Every structure is written in C-alpha cells, then in structure tokens.
Amino acid sequence: MDGRKSNPTQFLAHHLLTLLLLVSLTLNFCAGEMDNLDDGITAAARTVNNIEDITTDECNREILRRLKESDPIFDVLGLCSTHEREDDDYCPQSAREMGWIGHFIGRNSVLKELHLSSNPFQDFHNNTIESFCRGVNSNRSIQEIGFYEMGLSGGVLFQSLRPFFENNNNI
Fold first, then answer.
1. Long-range contact list for 136-139, CB < 8 A, 24+ apart?
2. Which end of the chain has fewer CB atoms at under 10 Å, N or C?
3. Burial of 17 (0-12, 13-18, 19+ CB in 10 A)
4. For residue 79, what is the DSSP state?
5. pLDDT, position 73
6. CA dist 167 to 30, 128, 156, 164, 171, Å?
7. Quick one: DSSP state of residue 6?
8. What is the Cα 66 distance to its own chain's centre?
9. DSSP conformational letter for 26
10. pLDDT for residue 61
11. More confident of the two residues 12 and 90
C-alpha cells in the first residue's frame, strides 16, 4: 500500500463500473455477431454458385435455384413448416436456410405472391425471423403476401416486415 486509505464505496463503485463496461462490451460483441451473420449471407451470396451447399432438401434446392434466377414462370412461393409441406412449398430446415430463402426472395424480380403457412418460423429464434425479413424487405415485385395458420411469433414477424410494407408500392 502507498499509505492512502481505501474507501469501500470508491472500491465498490470502481468494480461496478468495470463490470458494467464488460457487460456492455459483451452485448455489443453479441449484437455485432448477429450483424456479421447477415453480412456473411450477403457476402456469401455474391459468390454462391452451389445451391447444394445451402440445403440438402431437393425441393428446397429447386426453389432456391428458381428464385436466384428470377424464373419468370415461378411467381408464387409458399413457405411452411417442415411438418406441413404441400406441393412445391419451401420448408426451411435450419436458421441458415431461413436466412438464404429471405435473401433470394429479396433479390428476386418476378415473385408476385408469398404465402406463409403453418408458421415456418416456429422452430427458430427471433433473430432468424429478423434475418429472413431483412432479405424479404428488399423485394419490390411481391403484390400479395398471405399468412395462414400462423402463430404470429410475438409480433416479431410484422415488426421485422414493416420496411417491406412501407416501401413496396405493389401491395
């Protein structure tokens, strides 16, 4: 010791501030990691040549290909949970797939209708819903969006799609 008396209040305040700083840094890092996930999808999309690396489901692969190429015949997309697949619906099997389908919907220029049914988000965290919606929010060709048999995920879905509804003049 250097001869100064240690004040317990100052000692406690110093350690409390240090703890708050560490918590703040941790939260900022975690938020940055979620942004990095979305940035990673965007960066990877510039170089993705192999849809097979995104999903193992052949029906999902075909839908991703058609969306990526803006197939003029493919203007209606159904998205559902894996338990309720009908016809040519896209059924995401992972959070990663959910981000990719959102990305390809956002980049597509011919899609006219998007139908969400049987809550395709039910097995995923809210961050996955937000990642999906960030992609969809870029789309300007969709004229109709439908929600069927959906648990509305605490409103996160509609909050995350707000930019889509505000910026899409076709709806």
1. 136/102, 136/105, 136/106, 136/161, 136/164, 137/106, 137/161, 137/163, 137/164, 137/167, 138/106, 138/107, 139/105, 139/106, 139/107, 139/108, 139/111, 139/164, 139/168
2. N
3. exposed
4. E
5. 96
6. 29, 22, 18, 5, 9
7. P
8. 20
9. H
10. 95
11. 90
Structure tokens at 1: 């010791």
In angstroms, rounded to a whole number, what is the distance separating the alpha carbons of residues 17 and 6?
17
Whole-structure pTM value: 0.71
CA angle in degrees (0–180, nearest 5) for 119-123-126: 85
The DSSP output letter for 54 is T
* Polymer length in residues for the chain: 171
Element (H, E) at 34: helix 8-47
With tokens 């700083």, the residue in question is 21
Sign, CA torsion 84/90/93/95: negative
Tell me the average pLDDT across 79-106. Answer: 89
Residue carrying the six token digits 């969006």 = 145
Q: Which residue has the tokens 């969709």?
A: 142
DSSP state of 84: G
Tell me, what amino acid is at 161?
L
DSSP string, 97-164: HHHHHHHHHHH-SS--EEEEES-TTTTS-HHHHHHHHHHHTT-----EEEEES---GGGHHHHHHHHH
